[in-house]
Protein backbone atom coordinates (compact mmCIF):
# COMPACT_ATOMS: atom_id res chain seq x y z
CA UNK A 1 0.00 0.00 0.00
CA UNK A 2 2.77 2.34 0.98
CA UNK A 3 4.68 1.42 -2.15
CA UNK A 4 1.62 2.10 -4.26
CA UNK A 5 1.26 5.48 -2.59
CA UNK A 6 4.86 6.51 -3.35
CA UNK A 7 4.40 5.24 -6.87
CA UNK A 8 1.36 7.48 -7.30
CA UNK A 9 3.28 10.42 -5.86
CA UNK A 10 6.05 9.77 -8.35
CA UNK A 11 3.59 9.86 -11.23
CA UNK A 12 2.10 13.08 -9.89
CA UNK A 13 5.52 14.67 -9.54
CA UNK A 14 6.50 13.67 -13.05
CA UNK A 15 3.29 15.07 -14.47
CA UNK A 16 3.93 18.41 -12.79
CA UNK A 17 7.33 18.63 -14.46
CA UNK A 18 5.88 17.62 -17.82
CA UNK A 19 3.27 20.37 -17.58
CA UNK A 20 6.01 22.92 -16.99
CA UNK A 21 7.99 22.11 -20.07
CA UNK A 22 7.92 19.29 -22.62
CA UNK A 23 11.23 17.40 -22.88
CA UNK A 24 10.99 16.70 -26.57
CA UNK A 25 10.47 19.20 -29.34
CA UNK A 26 7.52 18.77 -31.67
CA UNK A 27 8.42 21.78 -33.81
CA UNK A 28 11.63 22.80 -35.55
CA UNK A 29 14.66 22.52 -33.28
CA UNK A 30 16.20 26.00 -32.99
CA UNK A 31 18.55 25.46 -30.06
CA UNK A 32 20.74 22.65 -28.79
CA UNK A 33 22.47 22.69 -25.40
CA UNK A 34 25.43 20.53 -24.40
CA UNK A 35 28.14 20.42 -21.76
CA UNK A 36 27.47 20.26 -18.03
CA UNK A 37 23.76 19.33 -18.24
CA UNK A 38 21.68 16.50 -16.78
CA UNK A 39 21.14 14.58 -20.03
CA UNK A 40 23.53 12.27 -21.87
CA UNK A 41 22.58 13.61 -25.27
CA UNK A 42 22.37 17.27 -26.26
CA UNK A 43 19.17 18.91 -25.07
CA UNK A 44 17.05 20.12 -27.99
CA UNK A 45 14.51 22.94 -27.95
CA UNK A 46 11.80 24.19 -30.25
CA UNK A 47 10.31 27.67 -29.82
CA UNK A 48 7.37 26.45 -27.71
CA UNK A 49 9.75 24.87 -25.19
CA UNK A 50 11.76 28.10 -24.91
CA UNK A 51 8.49 30.05 -24.49
CA UNK A 52 7.68 27.86 -21.46
CA UNK A 53 10.65 29.37 -19.60
CA UNK A 54 10.07 32.65 -17.68
CA UNK A 55 10.01 35.55 -20.16
CA UNK A 56 11.84 38.88 -19.83
CA UNK A 57 11.75 41.99 -22.02
CA UNK A 58 14.27 44.68 -22.94
CA UNK A 59 13.45 47.81 -24.93
CA UNK A 60 16.61 49.16 -26.52
CA UNK A 61 18.55 50.23 -29.58
CA UNK A 62 21.46 48.05 -30.68
CA UNK A 63 24.36 48.93 -32.99
CA UNK A 64 23.20 46.36 -35.60
CA UNK A 65 19.46 47.07 -35.78
CA UNK A 66 17.55 50.20 -36.82
CA UNK A 67 15.24 52.01 -34.43
CA UNK A 68 13.93 51.22 -30.95
CA UNK A 69 12.65 47.67 -30.42
CA UNK A 70 11.26 45.57 -27.60
CA UNK A 71 12.91 42.18 -27.27
CA UNK A 72 11.43 39.28 -25.35
CA UNK A 73 12.95 35.97 -24.44
CA UNK A 74 14.42 33.75 -21.75
CA UNK A 75 17.34 33.94 -19.37
CA UNK A 76 20.34 31.58 -19.36
CA UNK A 77 19.79 31.28 -15.61
CA UNK A 78 16.36 29.63 -16.06
CA UNK A 79 17.58 27.51 -18.98
CA UNK A 80 20.48 26.07 -16.97
CA UNK A 81 18.19 25.60 -13.94
CA UNK A 82 15.82 23.59 -16.12
CA UNK A 83 18.73 21.42 -17.28
CA UNK A 84 20.12 20.96 -13.77
CA UNK A 85 23.34 22.64 -14.85
CA UNK A 86 25.84 24.24 -12.51
CA UNK A 87 27.68 25.86 -15.43
CA UNK A 88 28.91 29.44 -14.97
CA UNK A 89 30.22 30.11 -18.47
CA UNK A 90 28.35 29.77 -21.75
CA UNK A 91 30.13 29.01 -25.00
CA UNK A 92 27.59 30.20 -27.57
CA UNK A 93 27.76 29.34 -31.28
CA UNK A 94 25.84 30.98 -34.13
CA UNK A 95 24.57 29.57 -37.42
CA UNK A 96 27.65 31.10 -39.14
CA UNK A 97 29.92 29.35 -36.57
CA UNK A 98 30.79 32.65 -34.87
CA UNK A 99 31.51 31.68 -31.26
CA UNK A 100 31.66 33.78 -28.12
CA UNK A 101 31.87 33.16 -24.39
CA UNK A 102 29.39 34.81 -22.04
CA UNK A 103 29.59 34.52 -18.25
CA UNK A 104 26.30 33.41 -16.70
CA UNK A 105 26.53 36.47 -14.43
CA UNK A 106 25.76 38.71 -17.45
CA UNK A 107 22.19 37.37 -17.31
CA UNK A 108 21.89 38.56 -13.70
CA UNK A 109 24.14 41.60 -13.22
CA UNK A 110 24.03 42.96 -16.77
CA UNK A 111 20.41 42.00 -17.53
CA UNK A 112 21.14 40.11 -20.75
CA UNK A 113 18.47 37.89 -22.34
CA UNK A 114 18.22 35.37 -25.16
CA UNK A 115 15.62 37.18 -27.27
CA UNK A 116 13.24 35.08 -29.38
CA UNK A 117 10.86 37.95 -30.24
CA UNK A 118 11.32 41.46 -31.61
CA UNK A 119 8.23 43.66 -31.07
CA UNK A 120 6.20 40.51 -30.39
CA UNK A 121 7.19 38.76 -33.60
CA UNK A 122 9.49 35.81 -34.20
CA UNK A 123 12.89 36.90 -35.51
CA UNK A 124 13.80 35.48 -38.92
CA UNK A 125 17.34 34.35 -39.67
CA UNK A 126 17.51 37.26 -42.14
CA UNK A 127 16.79 39.62 -39.22
CA UNK A 128 19.48 38.01 -37.04
CA UNK A 129 17.16 35.42 -35.41
CA UNK A 130 15.87 33.03 -34.36
CA UNK A 131 17.70 33.81 -31.09
CA UNK A 132 19.80 36.89 -30.24
CA UNK A 133 21.70 37.76 -27.06
CA UNK A 134 20.46 41.25 -26.16
CA UNK A 135 21.80 43.54 -23.43
CA UNK A 136 19.91 46.62 -22.11
CA UNK A 137 22.28 49.01 -23.93
CA UNK A 138 20.04 52.09 -23.57
CA UNK A 139 19.71 51.59 -19.83
CA UNK A 140 23.39 51.15 -19.04
CA UNK A 141 25.99 53.24 -20.86
CA UNK A 142 28.84 50.98 -19.69
CA UNK A 143 27.46 48.11 -21.81
CA UNK A 144 28.43 50.03 -24.95
CA UNK A 145 31.86 48.40 -25.09
CA UNK A 146 33.62 46.17 -27.61
CA UNK A 147 33.71 43.42 -25.00
CA UNK A 148 29.93 43.38 -24.61
CA UNK A 149 29.36 43.86 -28.37
CA UNK A 150 31.47 40.75 -28.94
CA UNK A 151 29.20 38.80 -26.57
CA UNK A 152 26.07 40.07 -28.35
CA UNK A 153 25.80 37.06 -30.63
CA UNK A 154 22.87 36.72 -33.01
CA UNK A 155 21.57 33.70 -34.97
CA UNK A 156 22.33 31.62 -31.88
CA UNK A 157 22.04 27.87 -32.48
CA UNK A 158 24.08 26.13 -29.79
CA UNK A 159 25.01 26.69 -26.15
CA UNK A 160 27.64 24.73 -24.26
CA UNK A 161 27.43 25.05 -20.48
CA UNK A 162 30.83 25.04 -18.83
CA UNK A 163 31.70 24.57 -15.16
CA UNK A 164 34.83 26.57 -14.40
CA UNK A 165 37.11 24.93 -11.87
CA UNK A 166 40.17 26.63 -10.42
N1 LIG B 1 26.22 35.57 -35.30
C1 LIG B 1 27.15 36.50 -35.12
N2 LIG B 1 27.06 37.35 -34.06
C2 LIG B 1 28.01 38.30 -33.86
C3 LIG B 1 29.11 38.42 -34.71
C4 LIG B 1 29.18 37.51 -35.83
O1 LIG B 1 30.10 37.54 -36.66
N3 LIG B 1 28.18 36.59 -36.00
N4 LIG B 1 30.08 39.38 -34.43
C5 LIG B 1 30.18 39.88 -33.04
C6 LIG B 1 31.09 41.01 -32.86
S1 LIG B 1 32.76 40.67 -32.78
C7 LIG B 1 30.63 42.29 -32.67
S2 LIG B 1 31.64 43.56 -32.31
C8 LIG B 1 29.21 42.58 -32.81
C9 LIG B 1 28.99 43.59 -33.92
O2 LIG B 1 29.39 43.00 -35.15
P1 LIG B 1 29.39 43.86 -36.49
O3 LIG B 1 30.48 44.87 -36.33
O4 LIG B 1 29.67 42.85 -37.57
O5 LIG B 1 28.05 44.48 -36.63
O6 LIG B 1 28.41 41.43 -33.09
C10 LIG B 1 28.81 40.21 -32.51
N5 LIG B 1 27.87 39.16 -32.81
MO1 LIG C 1 33.76 42.65 -32.26
UniProtKB/TrEMBL annotation:
Q: Which domain of life is it from?
A: Bacteria
Keyword Signal listed? The answer is: yes
Q: Which residues form the signal peptide?
A: 1-18
Q: What is this protein called?
A: Oxidoreductase
Q: Which UniProt keywords apply?
A: Signal
Matches recorded under Gene3D superfamilies: Oxidoreductase, molybdopterin-binding domain
What InterPro entries does this protein map onto?
Answer: OxRdtase_Mopterin-bd_sf (IPR036374)
Database matches in SUPFAM superfamilies? Oxidoreductase molybdopterin-binding domain
Amino acid sequence: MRLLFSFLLLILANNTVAADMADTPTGRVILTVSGAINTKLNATFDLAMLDALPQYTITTHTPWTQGLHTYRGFSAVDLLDHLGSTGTLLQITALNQYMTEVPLSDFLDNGAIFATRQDGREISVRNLGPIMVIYPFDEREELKSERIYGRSIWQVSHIKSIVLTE
